[in-house]
């Protein structure tokens, strides 16, 4: 685990009282700590995956654009300015950090039907909010449909080579080949995916990046990967969570999420019917991302193994249920009746 001197960052803020640190949920890309300063609580995030200030400033530009909208149904992180009036704080070694006001609540549960439907409603509201903002900064991250440009260094044959180097073969050869085949099939669909309606999206919205109080979804977090992409990808990222959580009941949970989303915002029929492709695209992107991380010696082989198994499982399940899923998406998201 990366060690940090938190005072390097926190001493640059005018908190008014002594502060204390408590552990927070940290991801692979950052270190997160809860900061208690008197009666106020904050979240300190230290970026471990880059030292690019413009990336964080774009994230903040998106956040402030949403914060200016007065009709939000959910809270989002509100960055705190340091003594220099900046919302990005830098350590002497170049590490970057931000401090945001804490959003009270807990992580929602995939077992709670109110949370599932509520996250659908919140996702739709976020889509509407993001469609209304006009950040001056250019997107940092490529859209998902530019998969081949993003992972040009990992060809389809190279996927098996990397798996072999990581010791995943022969035990997990079936899963790697499944992903290779799906990537090959998607080549013909990337152009049509790129033609779907595009806008700013969160890009990594899921249950772990949300906050619930009681049965309500009250907060959405971690806008680090926001970019301009096809709008329907916002839903696909959440739906992957619903597929991955258990081995049964996926369709019922997906329907609940779509009911919530569809009650607030309608997609076009082309968007709705394209979500099955986006589910596969999301998992291929995740698998290639972690192959890259393994190549760069950022993760152990066990991490890549887990991702490959998960990605192949979701791709296979989506393919097996594609007809049912398309009908569900068309009905609940685009208002197209299912055929009798």
Automatic annotation (TrEMBL):
<dbReference type="GO" id="GO:0019202">
    <property type="term" value="F:amino acid kinase activity"/>
</dbReference>
<protein>
    <submittedName>
        <fullName>Homoserine kinase type II</fullName>
    </submittedName>
</protein>
<dbReference type="InterPro" id="IPR002575">
    <property type="entry name" value="Aminoglycoside_PTrfase"/>
</dbReference>
<comment type="similarity">
    <text>Belongs to the pseudomonas-type ThrB family.</text>
</comment>
<keyword id="KW-0418">Kinase</keyword>
<feature type="domain" description="Aminoglycoside phosphotransferase">
    <location>
        <begin position="25"/>
        <end position="254"/>
    </location>
</feature>
<dbReference type="Pfam" id="PF01636">
    <property type="entry name" value="APH"/>
</dbReference>
<keyword id="KW-0808">Transferase</keyword>
<dbReference type="InterPro" id="IPR050249">
    <property type="entry name" value="Pseudomonas-type_ThrB"/>
</dbReference>
<feature type="coiled-coil region">
    <location>
        <begin position="169"/>
        <end position="196"/>
    </location>
</feature>
<keyword id="KW-0175">Coiled coil</keyword>
<dbReference type="InterPro" id="IPR011009">
    <property type="entry name" value="Kinase-like_dom_sf"/>
</dbReference>
